[in-house]
Here is the input.
Amino acid sequence: MESLYNFTSYELREKLFKKKVSSEEVVKSIYERIEEKEEKIKAFLYLCKKEEVLEKARRVDKKIALGEEVGKLAGIPVGIKDNMCVKGIPATGGSKILKNFIPPYNATVIEKLLQEDVIIMGKLNCDEFAMGSSNENSACYPVRNPWDLNRVPGGSSGGSAASVAASEVILSLGSDTGGSIRLPASFCGIVGIKPTYGRVSRYGLIAFASSLDQIGPLSKDVRDGALMLEVISGYDRRDSTSVNMEVPPYLSLLEEDVKGLKVGIPEELTGDGIDEDIRKRLSEAVVLFEKLGVICETVSLPTLSYALPVYYIISSSEASSNLARFDGVRYGYRDFTGEDIFSMYKKTRGKGFGPEVKRRIMLGTYALSAGYYDACYLKAQKVRTLLKRDFERVFKDFDALLSPVAPTTAFLIGEKIKDPLKMYLTDICTIPVNLAGLPSISVPAGLIKGLPVGLQITGRIFEESTILRLAYSFEQNSGYHTVSVKYSRQKPEESNY
Amino acid sequence: MSYYTIIGLEVHVELLTETKMFCSCSTKFGSLPNSNVCPVCLGLPGVLPVINKKAVEYLLKVALSLDCKIPHRSKFDRKNYFYPDMPKNYQISQYDLPLSQDGFLEIEIDGNRKKIGIERIHLEEDTGKSIHTGTIDKSLYTLEDFNRAGVPLLEIVSKPHMSSPEEAGEYLKELRAILFSLGISDCKMEEGSLRCDANISVNKEDFPELSRKVEIKNMNSFKSVQKALFYEIKRQTEMIERGEAIQQETRGWLEEEGKTIFMRGKEMANDYRYFPEPDLLPLEIDRIWLEEIKNTIPELPREKKRRFVKDYNISNYEATVLCDNFALSKFFEETVRIYDKAPVITNWLLGDISKYLNAENLEITSTKLTPENLSEMLSLIDNKVISGKIGKDIIEEMLRSGKKAEKIVQERGLLQISDEEVLWNLIRKVMDENSDAVKEYLKGKTKALGYLVGQVMKQSKGKANPQITNSIILEELQKKTGEA
Here is the structure.
């Protein structure tokens, strides 16, 4: 019999409801897998105690046995990015400054997952405060890409992507501020969804850039992603930026025909900066879509070229303020050698934050300072508005946009970490989507030299169902999603794709 | 050389909402330290603010009462600076799009009305409270109480339209009276629910170059605001006379020493790096809601004052004093409803009752006197059951105990004797005992009448009704004149 960890949540759900397997068996299988893989992959920052988790699984099994109503994700082992608060277990955001911080409350997404009876396995590794594209900025240890342990899994939700790709969990939650779900999904050969800004509550997500952050699912296939998105979406009165709008039944809308949909390919995202092989993959995808009756045309969004500087000004400005609360006064790490409050602040923050976080705090502080505000922050906001309008214009004629997720496949650990600008360019295709608040998905598009690559499909605001449909039909007709399942049956060393 | 002064005031008011500005914690004052806190007001990682609608409503009430403009669109901003009493190390406040702008407050100074402009009114959150052992520089550690963190604060900024400490005092009194009548704050400057900073500059007459403004902080009563302003006028005038330049700076008022001292200069001012709060959507004020709020605004002190003068036949001064104190004016009107002699009530409220309130530092509402009891006592005087003097004697007990006047006079045996037969007997006795005085009167010395009345009063321990006593004695004396 195939190992239980290999299945998707959708498949496991069927087996659980039909009482062919128990959640306890699924969880046991997951722990075995973790024991086998985790030492090499380092996807977890905190793994919940086996006995306690098994107890929770048995409770779900009992409910099912008694014929009680259970949630949509009952008994499914799930991992949570470490920048989300789960009551009673540590949340460090991958930072030393939050060492030993245990939140006394649950994020709204966690409440929603628990309502659907998920089994939380633990907290997943990430770049410090979600700042990074490689997971090398984790204060603890970098995550390794399950496809090649010498390579990065992508960031910042590297642990969330690697754990799903290596079947250490069935599903995971990540967060995406400039590509942090889609990039690692692409690098690890799985599905990652960044919902529309306001679709999912941010309450309980440790803020990096409030106007850009959004929580989303990472999964083995589109169906699983749609299922998890359905569970976590919806208005939350605790998040004033969440939108009070009905959540469509994403799962049941997946199989609707894509014929006649119009998809644009932004020429700005298929230029010289993108690897030849990746451009080839995109062209192949276009051919496949056209076969399915989708109309594909090249489009131009001239403002896309400003996205990177605009993003680094806005996200860093917001981060400089959001991260001010980590001061050693009330929780987390504190340096005790200071003589007064201000030297305590300086020493705590000096030792508590890593270099990339400090770089962005400085950049953001500068951009908001008197005399620079107008030229930096205000100007960036104006350009952001232009960029949004550019997207709106294109979306009058097109139902979705198709592009690469990143210019390359997974790069080597250490390859870009010393060169921030090179690292920042990794997110060139994903960042504009966050600036415009659009929904976007990364879906596997096969392998290049043995490494996975994703395709980015971006939609109109609150039209997640359209991009899910497109991604689903692409996946079902290309079969690329089975690649990662195949992979997970082998040991990394044996991977020969 | 003559000088003129320009003063502007910044007033912070803690709002009497039940919950905090951005979370549902209680705003109750005096709870155990750090008991009214939650992840939001403690600034834990991941939390988000949610605007308290009641606080916005209270602001709009004040704005409408001060004739401010209320823009359709407003927003919140972050004011960034590090301080341990501020959990997020930024304060959610309002920067360039406050909820209201551009109004005025009318004050009366030496009988003349003057409009003081209101620059803006905005909402923000209060900070926690730092507690040091001894003084801040010698304290080994600091304790933080976050109960106050996140309590809604209103900031009311005046235009620099005041030209003397007296005007500043009147502005504060009038403002407090308005806030009080709206019921949105208890306005206790001593407890910090109303705080005031002042901006002041002294300038030479006919001198084009304006002096730099000086901000004064740490004043904890209206009196200290005025004292600090007087001090600052003197200090700045002397500097100008010495030919020294006044620097833009912030100074602190030292109450005990009666002076201001340098706190920080312009170059030490914080760069607060304001930017729009990304966790909150811009605020749009629904015009229908605004109209509903308008309808809940009670009569404001200045209108009330005019009505008092017109309707109750009391002086402008009396009306002012009554209306400056919301509770007193309310008590006045409730009493007038059951006892219609407004001037008499005014005399009592502003006389003996105010004297007691001032001495005990109490509000009328914290005494046990009720409008019913006061009007009953005044009726007793009118009906000659007691004298005015006895009324004055018992009012304090009424304020303290809440007992009815009738009960007090009975307990103390103070009921006025109006029974003519009782008085007759008493008067005969007095006349017998004072035959000399009677003789004097009969000889034409009418002064002796007063003496006899006085004796009756003395023997009756003040209870004899003076008018009746007077007329009976006169009658008796006239009889004796006839006999003689």
